[in-house]
C-alpha cells in the first residue's frame, strides 16, 4: 500500500524481490537490551521474530524506527531498507560517491 502510494514504479522491483525470498509465520524471541531500546514496543516483535526464524534479512521501509539499525546485523539478521535490498540484489543502482 505504501509503495503503491509513494513510489508506484517500485512495485516492479518489489515483485522481483518477492520471487527471491521466503516468507514465514511470526514467532518472537528476546532482543538484546541495547537493540530493544532503539525500537518502540510495537516494532520489537518484528525484529525478534526475524531473529528467531533465522532470517538473513529484515526489509523495512520504517526509517523512523528501524533507520538506526539499517545495514547492521542483529542476532544474525541484516536490517535493510527496500532500496538497500534491491541494491544488494543488483535490482537497483547504488547511489552516492
What key attributes describe this structure?
3 strands, globular, alpha+beta, 97 residues, single chain
Gist of the model:
The protein is an alpha+beta fold and 97 residues long.
What does this structure look like?
With 97 residues, the chain is of the alpha+beta class. It has six helices and three strands. 39% of the residues lie in helices and 10% in strands. A three-stranded mixed β-sheet has the order 1-3-2. A hairpin with a 2-residue loop joins β2 and β3 (77-80). The longest helix has 9 residues, at 10-18. It is globular and about 35 Å long. The mean pLDDT is 87.
SSE topology sketch:
Elements: H1 2-6, H2 10-18, H3 33-36, H4 44-52, E1 57-59, H5 63-66, E2 72-74, E3 77-80, H6 82-88
Parallel strand pairs: 1-3
Antiparallel strand pairs: 2-3
* Helix content estimate: 25-40%
The mean pLDDT is: 87
Radius of gyration over alpha carbons? 14 Å
Number of helices, counting only DSSP H or I runs of 4 residues or more = 6
Strand content: 5-15%
User: Structural class from helices and strands?
Assistant: alpha+beta
Strands ordered across the widest β-sheet: 1-3-2
- Low-confidence runs: none
User: How far do the termini sit from each other?
Assistant: 32 Å
Q: Can you tell me the overall shape?
A: globular
**Biggest beta sheet attributes:** 3 strands, mixed
Number of DSSP E strands: 3
Instruction: Classify the oligomer.
Output: single chain
Q: Element order, helices and strands? A: HHHHEHEEH
